[in-house]
UniProtKB/TrEMBL annotation, chain A:
Protein name, per record: thioredoxin-disulfide reductase (NADPH)
Annotated binding of NAD(+), by residue: 200-207, 292
Active site per database record: 472
Organism this protein belongs to: Anser brachyrhynchus (Pink-footed goose)
Domain FAD/NAD(P)-binding, chain residue ranges per copy: 15-350
Disulphides: 61-66
Gene Ontology cellular component list: cytosol; mitochondrion
Family: Belongs to the class-I pyridine nucleotide-disulfide oxidoreductase family.
Automatic annotation (TrEMBL), chain B:
Disulfide topology: 99-104
One annotated Gene Ontology cellular component of this protein: cytosol
Binding-site residues, NAD(+): 237-244, 332
Family statement: Belongs to the class-I pyridine nucleotide-disulfide oxidoreductase family.
Domain FAD/NAD(P)-binding: 53-390
Catalytic activity: [thioredoxin]-dithiol + NADP(+) = [thioredoxin]-disulfide + NADPH + H(+); H2O2 + NADPH + H(+) = NADP(+) + 2 H2O
InterPro entries the record matches: FAD/NAD-bd_sf (IPR036188), FAD/NAD-binding_dom (IPR023753), FAD/NAD-linked_Rdtase_dimer_sf (IPR016156), GSHR/TRXR-like (IPR046952), Pyr_nuc-diS_OxRdtase (IPR001100), Pyr_nucl-diS_OxRdtase_dimer (IPR004099), Pyr_OxRdtase_I_AS (IPR012999), Thioredoxin/glutathione_Rdtase (IPR006338)
Name this polypeptide is given: Thioredoxin reductase 1, cytoplasmic
Physiological role: Reduces disulfideprotein thioredoxin (Trx) to its dithiol-containing form. Homodimeric flavoprotein involved in the regulation of cellular redox reactions, growth and differentiation. Contains a selenocysteine residue at the C-terminal active site that is essential for catalysis. Also has reductase activity on hydrogen peroxide (H2O2).
Taxonomic classification: Eukaryota, Metazoa, Chordata, Craniata, Vertebrata
Length: 497, 529
């Protein structure tokens, strides 16, 4: 049948562009291509998670990523706000409780409205949408299967793969798959997860553990080695230190060995403490794995068409133009090798790709100095190099690190501890002191970092930043007042205005 | 103790100097300081002169303190004179000036209290459950805020002491060249001389000059430490002080009316100002436009009492009356320059505004007298500007530095219920300066993710940038209305300092999901409609 279908369209494929994967990158690419009057289709299909969770159009960010996590983070922040409010004169009668179901329902309703919005946008832009699972049957042909097993054959001139990634389960941990959930499930739980063990030390792990703690749940993070690998480690330690004072428990240097279901329906987790060598155990209502994400390429049948992947990571190898090893097949987003796994980069890469393919543009995506924020209870925003990376690239004699411990004004009246509110700027030491990296821990870290990321993009130097006048009273103004170098060993605590 | 009294010193003043000067042994610093310029100017032979101090700073606010502390770093002998003249209602405060005591700090904390009120409502939508009735207690808030301010006042005194800056809680006024008289609370007078002076006395709220204003109205100098809840309040004025105070009072649950003579937030981008007004109106704040009060009468004493306000239309003869518990005047601020003896030393002020013109080195027409902060003519009235100007001035005076304070592209934020952050040109100023055809305005509404779940205020937050088409679409104006506008604006201000263009803005990757990311994806121009 394949031959029959293909011959029908031979010479002129049905679509100019076919995008496999309706997440942030795929949708952005498809919509942009349609702007150029091209015939475009998007294929999206959500394989249910092991516990059976599935969702609508929009990909990870909208359904099981940035959006629900930031909303639940906000729920947790509001919990702190309720405590702060009393210091600010609001008389809140106790008891104060958090109702998971109510929050989850509200978050899920909003996510569903976004799913709907994405469908409308595709319709408006005349992009055809297929809720099918796509796989290559030849370099220009995709075979799509619906949930019910119905087959659709689509042919296209150019194809973009943007299927993203999915959470990994640990192998060699008995009961992991059977009893554990992942971030794919957490946001869609109808009932409170209760006492939760989050395994992993990625940003996903810390963010989820953070908001679970914030809404009042007994939460434990189990980590094998370091938190937030790849991020500046001084900042990572401050983030976890704050979480500890916030009430999140940490099991450090521990590796889970098995999960069993008790008669009480609780989950008994056994782990090995690699420090002491002992075996320990505790029971939880929920065990969530946040041990990394793997690219979703299995179903694509990439081997058939010769799209090369990295054998270790499974990710698709692309060049600066997002082209794979097969000339007319491209890839964007989390599925690509060596790229930041971030929604805005996928969107920008997808748009630029469409502009190059159909709009006579030659602009490439610039993956340098991409800012990001970790929405842990005390947020961490950064752009550019970590201190260790800067030392590695330039040598410690050639970099200058300006830093400060500060207290957000709002924390004073609320009597909140600001021990971990900290920022540092990593600069070259010579001549102009170009800024290599900026790191900020505190409230609204994302809002603070965004503009500075732009400054760094414009080649900002330390003296330029010092010439910028602060906005008083904000946290961000402390960045324009950084003057204590780490090298000086002076006290970096900011006092007064 | 005085080796060379300045010319024209009266017997009485000389007696004061000898009697009260804290410098007991002036001969120790006999050759310190430059020959006095004034003597040279007057045709006298230059003589080595010595003063009590290298620098006397009049006014212990943000700018004055920053300058004094900086000067102490260069081992200069520095004195700060600070004195708070009580408000008509008798209120006064400690060291630190407007920002700390009756400005930025208490207003942002009370703004935060109001935001927390909104957070309480939002929190229910995010699953938090607590008994329905939540009341706000003015005294709890005010005491917390005042305690924090008290700690700052104390911190400043400690900082001055640590840096060996002499501090006198006394009113400073020039009596002679190089000489000030310091009068303390008990009326004790002392004279001090210095080689240089820095005037940093700041401003105080203006009164209307109508019957009953000083007797019954309060100003922002009183509000933040008011020992009772102000109740139903009339805010007179449309300055940022007026709108910020009206905003947080309403946010705390009070019945608030703003009486506006003409436009909101004069000097700010009017498109943004009007959006702020609309938002405030939608959130229950009443506006009486084109009216000015002509009389305030007390109906009943109390905390708060009851006041009757009579107001007259600015357009015709219509007169209206209204009853309020509190009337807050926020119609502007006047420079504290008319009662500090500037005429005695010949420092020129703008007779109309009272402001002091200075050159780009913050120097007045009298070479040894400098001025910074809110009292400067044609300069911004902002704490960080005063601090920066003060520090740089001192570095130039004593550190051999040459960097001048850069007053261009200073960012600022108005902490109205919907915060407004801005940097660079307003749209109208950009049009005036560059011509409408030469600027491109990109704009977009946005909906903060956090507001979606409580489903409130859709299409209220707004982002706008103004680009100069002739200069590679360089960003010359940045405006944002939304939560955390100050935090958002700061980094963009730094980028504008680095010469930000629209193209660079477009090629910057957003942080998802935050409000600030909207600026990396602006594509709609105002021109396109």
């Amino acid at each position: 049948t394949r031959h029959l279908h293909f011959s029908k369209f031979i010479g002129k494929p049905e679509y100019d562009l076919l995008v496999i994967g309706g997440g942030s990158g795929g949708l952005a690419c498809a919509k942009e291509a349609a702007q150029f009057g091209r015939k475009v289709a998007v294929l999206d299909y959500v394989e249910p998670s092991p516990p059976g969770t599935k969702w609508g159009l929009g990909g990870t960010c909208v359904n099981v990523g940035c959006i629900p996590k930031k909303l639940m983070h906000q729920a947790a922040l509001l919990g702190s706000a309720l405590k702060d409010a009393q210091h600010y004169g609001w008389n809140i009668a106790h008891p104060v409780h958090h109702n998971w179901s109510e929050m989850a329902q509200a978050v899920q309703n909003y996510v569903k409205s976004l799913n709907w919005g994405h469908r409308i946008q595709l319709q408006d832009k005349k992009v055809k949408y297929f809720n099918v699972k796509g796989s290559f049957s030849d370099p220009h042909t995709i075979r799509g299967l619906t949930k019910g097993g119905k087959e659709t054959i689509l042919t296209a001139e150019k194809i973009v793969i943007a299927t993203g990634g999915r959470p990994k389960y640990p192998i060699h941990v008995a009961g992991a798959l059977e009893y554990g959930i992942t971030s794919d499930d957490l946001f869609w739980l109808k009932e409170s997860p209760g006492k939760t063990l989050v395994v992993g030390a990625s940003y996903i792990s810390l963010e989820c553990a953070g908001f679970l703690t914030g809404i009042g749940l007994d939460t434990t993070v189990m980590m094998r080695s370091i938190p937030l690998r790849g991020f500046d480690q001084q900042m990572a330690s401050l983030v976890t230190e704050y979480m500890e004072s916030y009430g999140t428990k940490f099991l450090k240097k521990c590796i889970p060995t098995k999960v069993e279901k008790l008669e009480s329906n609780r989950l008994q987790v056994t782990w090995k403490n690699t420090d002491s060598g002992t075996e320990e155990t505790d029971s939880f209502d929920t065990v969530m794995w946040a041990v990394g994400r793997a690219p979703d390429t299995k179903a694509l049948n990439l081997e058939t068409v010769g799209v090369k992947t990295n054998s270790e990571t499974g990710k698709i190898i692309v060049d600066a133009r997002e082209a794979t090893s097969v000339p007319h097949i491209y890839a964007v987003g989390d599925i690509t090798e060596g790229r930041p796994e971030l929604t805005p980069t996928a969107i920008a890469a997808g748009k630029l790709l469409a502009q190059r393919l159909f709009g006579q543009s030659s602009e490439l995506m610039d993956y340098d100095n991409v800012p990001t924020t970790v929405f842990t209870p005390l947020e961490y925003g950064c752009v550019g190099l970590s201190e260790e990376k800067a030392v590695q690239c330039y040598g410690s004699d050639n970099i200058e690190v300006y830093h400060a411990y500060y207290k957000p004004l709002e924390f004073t009246v609320a009597e909140r501890d600001a021990t971990q509110c900290y920022m540092k700027m990593v600069c070259l030491r010579e001549r102009e002191q170009r800024i290599l990296g900026l790191h900020f821990i505190g409230p609204n870290a994302g809002e603070v970092i965004q503009g500075f990321a732009l400054g760094i993009k414009c080649g900002a130097t330390y003296p330029q930043l010092m010439k910028t006048i602060g906005i008083h009273p904000t946290c961000a103004e402390e960045i324009t007042k950084l003057h204590i170098t780490k090298r000086s060993g002076l006290d970096a605590t900011v006092t007064g205005c | 103790a005085f080796l060379h009294p300045p010319p024209g010193v009266t017997q009485r003043e000389l007696w004061f100097m000898r009697k009260l000067s804290p410098s007991k042994d002036m001969s120790l610093k006999h050759h310190k300081g430059n020959p006095q310029k004034l003597l040279e100017m007057n045709g006298h032979t230059a003589v080595p002169h010595s003063y009590d101090y290298d620098l006397i700073v009049i006014g212990g606010g943000s700018g004055g303190l920053a300058a004094a502390k900086e000067a102490a770093k260069y081992e200069k002998k520095v004195m700060v004179l600070d004195f708070v003249t009580p408000t008509p209602l008798g209120n006064s405060w400690g060291l630190g000036g407007t920002c700390v005591n009756v400005g930025c700090i208490p207003k942002k904390l009370m703004h935060q209290a109001a935001l927390l009120g909104q957070a309480l409502q939002d929190s229910r939508k995010f699953g938090w459950q607590f008994p329905e009735e939540v009341k706000h207690n003015w005294m709890t808030m005010t005491e917390s805020v005042q305690n924090y301010i008290g700690s700052l006042n104390w911190g400043y005194r400690v900082a001055l002491r640590e840096k060996k800056v002499t501090y006198e809680n006394a009113y400073g006024e020039f009596v002679q060249p190089h000489t000030v008289k310091a009068t303390n609370k008990r009326g004790v007078e002392k004279l001090y001389t210095a080689e240089r002076f820095l005037i940093a006395t700041g401003e105080r709220p203006r009164y209307l000059g109508i019957p009953g204003d000083k007797e019954y109205c309060i100003s922002s100098d009183d509000l933040f430490s008011l020992p009772y809840c102000p109740g139903k309040t009339l805010v007179v004025g449309a300055s940022y002080v007026a709108l910020e105070c009206a905003g947080f009072l309403a946010g705390l649950g009070l019945d608030v009316t703003v009486m506006v003579r003409s436009i909101l937030l004069r000097g700010f981008d009017q498109d943004m100002a009007n959006k702020i007004g609309e938002y405030m109106e939608e959130h229950g704040i009443k506006f009486i436009r084109e009216f000015v009060p002509i009389k305030v009468e007390q109906i009943e004493e109390g905390t708060p009492g009851r006041l009757k306000v009579t107001a007259k239309s600015t357009k015709g003869n219509e007169v209206i009356g209204g009853e309020y518990n509190t009337v807050l005047l926020a119609i502007g601020r006047d420079a504290c320059t008319r009662k500090i003896g500037l005429d005695k030393v010949g420092v020129k002020i703008n007779e109309k505004t009272g402001k002091i013109p200075v050159n780009d080195m913050e120097q007045t027409n009298v070479p040894y007298i400098y001025a910074i902060g809110d009292i400067l003519q044609d300069r911004l009235e902002l704490t960080p500007v005063a601090i920066q100007a003060g520090r740089l001035l001192v570095q130039r005076l004593y550190g051999g530095a040459t960097t001048k304070c850069d007053y261009v592209n200073v960012p600022t934020t108005v902490f109205t219920p919907l915060e407004y952050g801005a940097c660079g040109y307003s749209e109208e100023n950009a049009i005036q300066k560059f011509g409408e055809e030469n600027i491109e305005v990109y704009h977009s509404h946005f909906w903060p993710l956090e507001w979606t779940v409580p489903s409130r205020d859709n299409n209220k937050c707004y982002a706008k940038i103004i680009c100069n088409i002739r200069d590679n679409e360089r960003v010359i104006g940045f405006h944002v209305l939304g939560p955390n506008a100050g935090e958002v604006t700061q980094g963009f201000a730094a980028a504008i300092k680095c010469g930000l263009t629209k193209e660079q803005l477009d090629s910057t990757i957003g942080i998802h999901p935050v409000c600030a990311e909207v600026f990396t994806t602006l594509s709609v121009t105002k021109r396109s409609g």
